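Priority: medium. Attachment 1 of 2:
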């Protein structure tokens, strides 16, 4: 089944609290029924109406549950035009690089203090004349 193409004019037309479309990763979602349930309040969603909200959505760091909810709100793909430049799904490569760096940093965060603690106890043991 081919998905519906949503134009920029349609996206702009649905930018009120009574009818609200949001553009994320070049896909359009109807968040009208969800707006009152949004944990961050309705103001943050309304502020992103009529434009690409991908960066704002990703900066907040939404949970997997939020991404599952989006599947039920899907309207269609966005028709790319010169009127609105989208921030497409090309960020996945950079996102995986960031995740990898964070994981490596997290490992060092535990190793370095443990190594220092071990060195301290070794120094205390050998400098106390227990040998």
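Attachment 2 of 2:
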């Amino acid at each position: 089944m081919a998905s519906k193409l949503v134009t920029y004019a349609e996206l702009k037309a649905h930018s009120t609290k009574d009818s609200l479309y949001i553009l994320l990763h070049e896909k359009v979602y109807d968040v009208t029924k969800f707006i009152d349930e949004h944990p961050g309040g309705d103001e943050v969603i309304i502020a992103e109406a009529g434009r690409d909200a991908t960066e704002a959505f990703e900066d907040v760091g939404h949970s997997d549950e939020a991404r599952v909810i989006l599947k039920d709100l899907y309207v269609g793909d966005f028709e790319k035009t010169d009127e609105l430049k989208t921030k497409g799904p090309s960020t996945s490569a950079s996102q995986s690089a960031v995740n990898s760096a964070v994981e490596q940093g997290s490992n060092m965060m535990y190793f370095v203090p443990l190594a220092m603690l071990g060195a301290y106890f070794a120094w205390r043991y050998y400098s106390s004349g227990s040998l």
